[in-house]
Amino acid sequence: MSYFWKAYMFFFAVPFPMILYYSINYNSEIRGDGTNPWLALTYLLISLVLWTIVLYKLYQRWIALTLQTKSNIESLLRDGVLKDGEIVDVKTLKPVAKDVETLEVSVRFENFSGTKVLQTIPINDSKPQQNRYEAGKRIKLRIDKTLKSSPVFIPDGVQVELRKSQMFLSIIGWLLALGLVIAYYIFSYQLESRGTGWRFLIFWHPLLLCPLILLLSFLGLDALLGQLSGLPKDVLRLIFYGKQATARILSAKQTGTYINEQPQVRFELDFKDERGRTHRVSLKKIVSLLEVSITQQQTVDIFYLEEDPQTIAFSKDLND
């Protein structure tokens, strides 16, 4: 998920509900005696459960995932399938540490169906003087054939180690989030209780609404963005097991949905698989204003799954 979507999600999950809530004067004259005591306690319990789940998920993403990724990479180096690839492009990014080059390496290789795919690998090169990562050079990859590991593929022989400073910041960040949640409970109670305990709690209070929106965002935003981008759920299987074909564009019509003024387009396509069988499929995706000319094309390259030809994606969307 990009930083834009993370910031977008966070704004509508935390600041926005607070702005709405505190812009309305929820005083005792408007709310009478407050919420029923048992209902207020129920709201409090729900709020505590929701925030506990949110904090647990943040712990998983910020701390546990880092430790699990290190273990996955070590396992992939031992058991991953070895593939030969060609470096197509290399971009230098902002370095993450002194004497280390941070690179974005685009590699072309054959997937498990024999189809050429182009994928990008982030690499922290601790020995840039050796010029190991240059366009045109060959590179060995280790790929998880089950596609269950994260990451799914890495350069063979890569060395992995935890950056203690980053882990420390992640732990501090999580503890800060925990502290802010506790502080907000105290702040809300002191500001709004007015001697009535937790009876100021209502369903749309930020103590309930913020964690609820955060959880819905965790669960649904990635899936929503996947649908809008035109990528199926099993996109990894398309990349590593998919076959390529040229599809005819039968029609391309806007659905009326826009994201950042970019239209969602429904494409009706047909294509022949490698056995000569014709399949008709439909795909919806957000099309950027710079790429809207694709709707005027006669054909487009796609990837499809041999065992499920209705699962497709545009080749351009997979070759990142």
What would you say this structure looks like, in words?
This protein has 320 residues and is of the alpha+beta class. It folds into three domains: 122 residues, no CATH class; 63 residues; 87 residues, Beta Barrel (OB fold (Dihydrolipoamide Acetyltransferase, E2P)). Helices cover 41% and strands 29% of the residues. The protein contains eight helices and ten strands. The strands form two sheets. Strands 3-2-1-4-5 form a five-stranded antiparallel β-sheet. It has a five-stranded antiparallel β-sheet with strand order 8-7-6-9-10. Strand 9 and strand 10 form a beta hairpin. The longest helix is centred in the N-terminal third of the chain and has 43 residues. It is globular. The mean pLDDT is 89.
Overall geometric form: globular
Q: How many beta strands in the DSSP annotation? A: 10
Pick out the low-confidence regions: none
Structural class: alpha+beta
> Oligomeric state of the chains?
single chain
Organism: Olivibacter jilunii
Protein name: DUF3592 domain-containing protein
Keywords: Membrane, Transmembrane, Transmembrane helix
Transmembrane segments: 7-26, 38-59, 167-187, 202-225
